[in-house]
Structure formats: structure tokens, C-alpha cells
Amino acid sequence: MTPFIQACIKANEEISSALQNGFDTSWFEKTEVGAGGDISSKLDLFAEEIFVKHLSAFGKIESEESGIIGEGEEQIIIDPIDGSANALSLFPFYGTSVAKVNAEGILDAAVVCNLANKDIFFKSSTCKVQQGKLFSNTFHDPHSSEKAEIGLFEKAYANPELVAALDKEKLKFRSPGAIALSLAYAHTVNYVLFMGEFRIYDFAAGLALCEGLEVIVEADYVIVSKEKSIAMQIESLINKL
């Protein structure tokens, strides 16, 4: 495990420990529009501060909240709280997303953590995708369900025609509201689908964790599945709209 991955895990463990006894009331306060276009909460900024503390020695940080922080040849792309609306609604599907791009422009590390259940996923240039738990030193290949019954459709609420088409094809789904986390679980579910504006903070780490899966990335949609036939079926539905 690389020092960068270790630092990411330590940052997530610090955030998780802070959340252990419930959310501080100040974290629910909204501040201003962040670099990613959404209004940042004080929870977002709290998590960002912890990541900056642990990761700034590795390069320049580009955060969804504050934009560019620090300097360096390597770029670290973070979403301090992925699914912050879920977190602030106390809905247990929220986490963090970190990706590192080296000086040659190659993404060489990715870490996504589900703070709600402490699942953590990572990969680097020296190791394939691994899954484990915060506060544990045991890691393994990602869990996979060969008989998964649902997919994950992020931004489903904004795409009613595709929702109807998926329903007609009996392609069941849930829409949990945290794209990096959904991509991290792509090895488990039937498929992951996103339709909407593509932001680097949402996808840099998550897509890197989809190693070995069928991945289709276009300007306005992303499809990931264990089965090429499922990915192609969904793309066909999109093209018919």
C-alpha cells in the first residue's frame, strides 16, 4: 500500500471518528457556491480541511468546495463529501472521493469511502482494486454478486423517459444520490448509470475503481456493468430517446 493510499485512509478515519457520535449542528449550515457549482455546507468544508491536512504534501489539491489548494506537480482531485445532501438528511449513503493524477497526467491512485458503513475501496499503480473497512488492515478483491437484481441510476429524477424505458425492460434500479460511491459498488450491482453534467470531482476516483468492468463514457452519460450485453442494452435505450 502506497503512502498516498495510507494518508487517504487516515483522513477518512479521522472524518469517520468525528461523525461517530452524531453530526455537529454547525455542519448543517450552508456557506457559498463551491468550485463544483453546488452550495457547500460546513460539513463539506470540515471534511475538506482534514483532507488538506493529510494530502497537501503529495501535490496540488483540486477540491469540489474550494477549488485549487496549494501547489505541486501532482494533482489530487477530491470530493470531500460525496452525497452531501444524503449526509445532511442523515440518509446512510455518503462518503468521500479522492483521485491522484501524476506529473505525466496519468491517474495513478483512487480512493472512495462510504462513511456510513465504513466500506473503503482503493487502487493504485502498484495494486488492483481492493475493498475493506476503515480501522481494519484486512483488504480483499471487491465483493461481487453474480445474481444482482438492481442497478444504480444516478440522476434518475431528471430522466423520466429513460426511467420508463428501463422499467419496460425490467431493468430494476435504485437512485441513492452519490455517484462516486455508486461506481465503487459497480462490481456488486447489475449496472451503474448516470445521465447529466459530467464533473471531474464525481467521476475521477469512481471510474478508476471500475477496473475489469464494461465502461461506456459519453458526454452526457456513463454506463458501467459486469455484463457487456447489459451496458449495450442500456445504451441502446438511451439512443432511442
Automatic annotation (TrEMBL):
InterPro entries registered for this protein in UniProt: Inositol_monophosphatase-like
Superkingdom of origin organism: Bacteria
Protein name: Inositol monophosphatase
Organism: Sulfurovum xiamenensis
Upper taxonomic lineage: Bacteria, Pseudomonadati, Campylobacterota, Epsilonproteobacteria, Campylobacterales
